[in-house]
Amino acid sequence: MTVTAPRPAAAPSSASVPSARVVITALLATTFLVKACGFAYDFLGYSISAAHGTTAAGAALTLFGVGWCVGQLASGAMTDRLGARSACTIGLLLAAAVCAGLTVASGLNTLMLLAFCLGCTMDVHRPAVSAQINERLTNDGARTRAQGWVYWVSNVGISLSGGVGGFVAQAHGYRFLFALNAVASVAAALLVRRTLTGRRAAPRAEQAHVTYAQIISDARLRWMVAAAIAATTCAYGLISVLPLVMSADGLAPSAYGTAMLANSAAVLLLSPPLTRLLVGRDDRVRYPIGPVLAAGSLILGAAMALAALQHTIVGYATAAVLMVPGEICYSVAAGAFVATAAPAGAIGRYQAALSVAGAIASLTPLAVAGALTAGGRPLVAGLLVASAVLGALACVPLSRTLRTADTADTAEPAGHRPVPY
């Protein structure tokens, strides 16, 4: 009797594996779709404020921020453990379910719960996107450029979401916006599922340093997160502070849409020249990360403080435009940090840590509502300036730790990546 040995499993054909360009393009498209149709967060405050008052809206947005923190930590761990495809698909489908819930919910307690769940799911794609960029691209300069594009696409998408959504909400209501958000999340999940491949088995060496306890031990990341919290407190004022102060002025959602469209137009016009100024032809940041981030923080704080003191559509739109250089500085610095500092096997969690900084910054609406009541707009403006200054000051020890890491890396054998400072 003849026994035929089992035929070895065929290696996956390279033709079945999408190229890095295809994957990065799909990830940018996913990011843009999620952000441009992210109406639920942009107009959650307006929707709840109209039905239950400004204080309730501030509380809901704060719960959203708490959920955002939880969701980013969970999605970062899922990305590193399950792979970008599974983590991103699961998260986006959950986001669609939450948005669908917002189309029918009306009770305050239910809305508060959904606000928390929305925070847990709305930005779950971000760690997966960063992990795929660092996995698909081997050159640090190319990674920095790709990370910068992700931030740019996000900014444009957020601005378009607020701009277009304001006019759509005025014509069709908030529930229609939430339904569109749900459909977009499902579409993004399908795009990710179709484009990305399953998780590839990683060498044991790449599994090191993947716990959050180990990640927190990195002094560079600790100071980067501290600076990012302060800077994004001002940056996210565009979608947390602005709706509250404009609502207090009695301005319609279309007025908020006008300000966001002005911001979007400025991002489109200013990003190419400012990015060329900050990033060289080799795709590396021309200047140290610390000073670039500090400049971004101060610009964001000054612009949002100006916004807090406005009462007209023109004033709000002007402030939204003035903050764009700060957004670009932050995007370049954050992208360069993730592209060069995150070790293999922990990229998702490093990006999650920076996303948590934004989530913590989004906890401010309840405080803003309280500050408006207690001290008025000057108090809100003062708090924003103070946050910006703290962010700039945190960049001093950040620069020092990055220099120390850079010196240590240059003393290592070839193959270790230098970290820009």
From TrEMBL:
Domain Major facilitator superfamily (MFS) profile: 1-403
Signal peptide (UniProt feature, chain positions): none
Transmembrane segments: 22-44, 50-70, 82-105, 149-168, 174-192, 223-245, 251-271, 292-313, 319-340, 352-373, 379-398
Key word Heme present: no
GO CC list: plasma membrane
Gene3D superfamilies attached to this UniProt entry: MFS general substrate transporter like domains (1.20.1250.20)
Keywords: Cell membrane, Membrane, Transmembrane, Transmembrane helix, Transport
Protein name in UniProt: MFS transporter
Native organism: Streptomyces spectabilis
